[in-house]
């Protein structure tokens, strides 16, 4: 006969209590509570994922996210820091350098300690340049909540910025940022009715471009003596733009000047060494050993005249040079490369400078207000050697300029044309020269033809 057992009925918690001692029951209850807490209460990690952040960390830049002053890596998938992060607010303050401002003044206005300033200045040569600030420059301080300098940006101008950033070990590293403007060719043509400056200004040329053009032709045209009404010129130069706004002009690329019926042309060429100079379309240098005048476009008040009546002594005394009337303080240039053989003062000459050029030539500059060079010093063509004045026997501010060849006085207005020019483009670079300059000259000619025709119609 087979025995059949009844299935065990479920045991209720209340019934079990009767079978367990009190201590065992308390232990079992505590375990049950722990189990419930583990299931229903989230862990700190889960809580961090569930709670929305007050800021969108993925949208913050690197200057804002920091952990112990180190940048925080951000997961692009989750938009949260990969490490436990403390987000510190970085305050940005823009200051403009005012007249009389020192770096110390700017740090005080930014509420950054002097210790931070000295630490920055001691970080290298580039940082030491901060001690020489120019009014109008802009500084951007980025400081953390503890007042510690995180970075400093100096905007020198619209194209050049230097940034100092705190790195490991609290040192500062600098980065130079240079923006390149867009360049486009521009053309101007004008006819002279009264003066070169008036004609150039009316055509839309800046003073600096007018002076640059005069410098290009300074060995061929005396702009104080040779200019005539009806002379014409056309110029192609670079205009520079930044973010669609014109910020300045680049160099002259090609230029043509018709003076007293004779046309001179020049084109800018950058040689294989990276040096830029102006040449004729055939590759001959526009630069002679001497420029025609030692000052920028001025008026001749007295010409070379061996039988001139002296304005002070009222007697016949040779005038062995050319006098250029100009405002006091006008820069005076050396007309050629050479060595200063005399720089001093005498009662008749006032402040003077004499320069030896090679073995045969000497130039003299008299009645200067100030002398900028000393005896024995080497000088380059167009280097400033002094300023116009009226020292010595002079009736007013002007420069007396003399030119000697083998010890004999020659007329400065004519002697330069008889002297050799500088070196031309070497034959080894002629192909390169043609490839670079012919398109420039062709563009200038294409513009010049219709512009001259329109000018003739208006006349």
From TrEMBL:
- Sequence ranges assigned to domain Opacity-associated protein A LysM-like in this UniProt record: 94-173
Domain annotation M23ase beta-sheet core: ranges:
318-412
PROSITE patterns, alphabetically? PROKAR_LIPOPROTEIN
Q: Which UniProt keywords apply?
A: Hydrolase, Metal-binding, Metalloprotease, Protease, Zinc
List the Pfam families hit by this protein, alphabetically: Csd3_N2, LysM_OapA, Peptidase_M23
The residue ranges of the Csd3-like second N-terminal domain are 190-306
- Report if keyword Hydrolase is assigned: yes
Going by the entry's taxonomy, the superkingdom of the source organism is recorded as Bacteria
Which cofactor does this sequence's record say it needs?
Zn(2+)
Q: Which Gene3D superfamilies match?
A: 3.10.450.350, Glucose Permease (Domain IIA) (2.70.70.10)
Compartments reported by the entry:
Cell envelope
Q: What is this protein called?
A: Peptidoglycan DD-metalloendopeptidase family protein
